[in-house]
Write a structure and sequence with these properties.
CATH architecture: 3-Layer(aba) Sandwich
Strand content: 5-15%
Structural class: alpha/beta
Number of domains: 1
CATH topology: Rossmann fold
């Protein structure tokens, strides 16, 4: 792994789960970890409930937008975390893959999205502890 690990979060629409995970990782790890997110079938815009849930914890993800998953993004990542994108994510040697089985926030109310957000935060904190053990 490079001196600055690189993480790619992937979900289908890149509008909720992967954006919240990227927001938490950027906020909590700063420049110590390179953060990317993408989707296999990106939505036109971010999920408003995900934006609201992240704002509640002081993280603004409104400057982000859904992006298409590219081979290059996978190839240049040390860790790829999938969130319900199935077999659409290319698997490459030398890349560590994890699947986070998380409920999709699409169409859910803010109460459900808060639970998903909090589960994502806990997983991101565990990931930081794994990738940057000296910081914990």
């Amino acid at each position: 792994m490079a001196s600055t690990p690189s993480v790619l979060f992937v979900c289908v629409h890149n509008a909720g789960r992967s954006q919240m995970a990227a927001g938490f990782l950027s906020h909590l790890a700063g420049a110590a970890i390179e953060v990317r997110s993408a989707g296999s079938a990106p939505a036109e815009s971010l999920n408003p409930a995900a934006v609201e849930a992240m704002n509640e914890v002081g993280i603004d993800i409104t400057r982000q937008y859904p992006k298409i998953l590219s081979y290059d993004a996978v190839e240049t990542s040390d860790v790829v975390i999938t969130m319900g994108c199935g077999d659409t994510c290319p698997v490459l040697p030398g890349v560590s893959y994890r699947d986070w089985n998380l409920e999709d926030p699409a169409g859910k109310g803010i109460e459900s999205v808060r639970r998903i957000r909090d589960e994502i935060r806990a997983r991101v904190e565990d990931l930081i502890a794994e990738l940057l053990p000296a910081r914990t």
